[in-house]
Amino acid sequence: MKTESRESAVIDEKQKAEPNRDVLILAIESSCDETAAAVVKNGREVLSNVISSQIDIHTLYGGVVPEIASRKHVENINVVIKEALQQAHKTLEEIDAIGVTYGPGLVGALLVGVAEAKAMAYAAEKPLIGVHHIEGHVSANYIADKNLEPPFICLVVSGGHTHLVIVKDYGRYEVVGRTRDDAAGEAFDKVARAIELGYPGGPKIDRLAKTGNADAIPFPKAVVNGAPLDFSFSGLKSAVLNYINSCKMKNQEYNKADIAASFQKAVVAVLTEHAMQACEQYHIDKLAIAGGVAANSAIRDSLKYHCEQKKIAFFCPPNILCTDNAAMIGSAAYYEYMAGIRDGYDLNAIPNLKIGERMTGKGSSGK
Ligand code: KG4
Ligand code: ZN
User: Whose C-alpha lies nearest to ligand 1, atom 23?
Assistant: First the structure.
């Protein structure tokens, strides 16, 4: 399915990449609550990676408030971009192309980055490249490991997404597993709220779980009938809420650390099993992880251990490249740029952009 902006994407002569020359991408990310800009060289080398987090203000409300996120992006975006160029010791003239997240995400938040990128591309006469946020997360692995090449399997686990993706080639993806309901990060955040840890819950559960007994409460590991690589976390989340409610009704104390550890164990088990199964089923011996939840220490340890057992190479970006950032967007934009993909000035924010949708639209318009 083509997207509107892709159909009118153009590539003219002056926008083509010159061979054997360093390519600098200025990347912008504003899909949720981080305003970020980065300068990335040749898709793998980060010259700057500036992130202005809004977590403090959203914490006051117990989660991301979309309108506040958009307003904060408007306030911060120019400052963050200026800083990214300065830290990279580059001017806008030296940049080859501008990459920007255009979906999925919060529409008002995405629009700030997209409008900014379009204005800059127009004013500086630079090519414009819209990037899928999840492809950005996957591409963080290219920065973290300079030798990683497709094909590989990537487990993308973030606040809004849980996907098992086969990265067939640069810019070519096949989703082989996805969540049917809550994303993994959403489940972490909701359980954290239930045990009054605050927002964002993932890192707090990760820390607290280290002090709890993971075998204390047998929370269920959900499976989706007929779709063994798909995920479902809403049942697990409900089981945690039911457990807390039943303790409250019986006037029983409950141990928050045990709940955190037992919940996390159930999530880790499902993510590990499905990722291992995907590698086996598709005969791929490289597994990467991506997204905010990939910062979780138990998930990293479990995947590392099981990959070692099965002789699968494991790729895991540092935390700073797992959570939302623009360097990952710069890496994804670089491979699009080299493939000759360009966007028109009608590029729009697409809040529910699917991975396949994006790929087909781009491929059909830019080459
Ligand atoms: O990728 P990300 O920064 O934003 C989205 O694209 O959604 O992911 C944010 C999510 C939040 O749900 C947060 O709680 C979760 O990542 N997260 C973690 C950890 N650090 C962040 N979840 C579990 N363990 C962590 N250490
Ligand atoms: Zn993200």
Answer: 202
